[in-house]
Amino acid sequence: MTLSLWLSLLSACIVISFTPGAGAINTMSNSLRQGWGASIWGVLGQQIALLIHVVIVAAGVGLLVASSPLLFAIIRYAGAAYLVYLGIRMLLSKPEVASDGSSSGHKLTPWAMLNRGILVNLLNPKAIVFFLAFTPQFIRADQPLLAQYAIFIGTVVVVDILVMFFFFAGTARTFQRFTATYRGAKLLNILFGILFILVAALLLLIH
Q1: pTM (two decimals)
Q2: Exposure of 76 in the CB half-sphere (CA atoms within 13 A)
Q3: Which of 31, 43, 118, 121 is the most exposed place for a label (fewest CB within 10 A)?
Q4: Where does this protein reside within or beyond the cell (predicted)?
Q5: Residue 93: alpha-carbon gap to chain centroid
Q6: How far is CA 10 from the centre of its chain?
Q7: Contacts of 207 (CB under 8 A, 6+ apart)
């Protein structure tokens, strides 16, 4: 991969990572409810899903998903349903109140955050179609493919980790003062619950 092509890839990855979506909402939610450091597990889960998407595209399965309305619809509705499920759980959840009156949300294990991160990004067929259109722009069939894919996915993952962890998770830390009380934590649960449901609606309505 030439330097100019890699710089184009880097620029595209930065723009894409800063675009708000289910992954960004999940990251901010984890940072607020579980802590900034712990939110890295959700971010890593999202990267595993990105790796799977690229492997699917590289293996040619992405063409099947893109060309099969039924398969696309099944994954699409499953993804939307999962986001609605997360949203409803957050809307109904009650922050735990400590003995000093402060609020601490329900704690998730690193494994639970990792799994949720994988599912949030994986159950999005538009991501497969996006990578199907995006990947060929930076891969040259007449050059060694393994090295190109390694550079491609390495750039995508590193940029997304930096943006998710240091920007979205870091930005969420500014709202920590709102979680100091039961009322503030409950309002944030409602906010993020609504955001998850809105993203699910967008997934279904935007073609």
Answers
A1: 0.76
A2: 17
A3: 118
A4: Cell membrane
A5: 21
A6: 18
A7: none
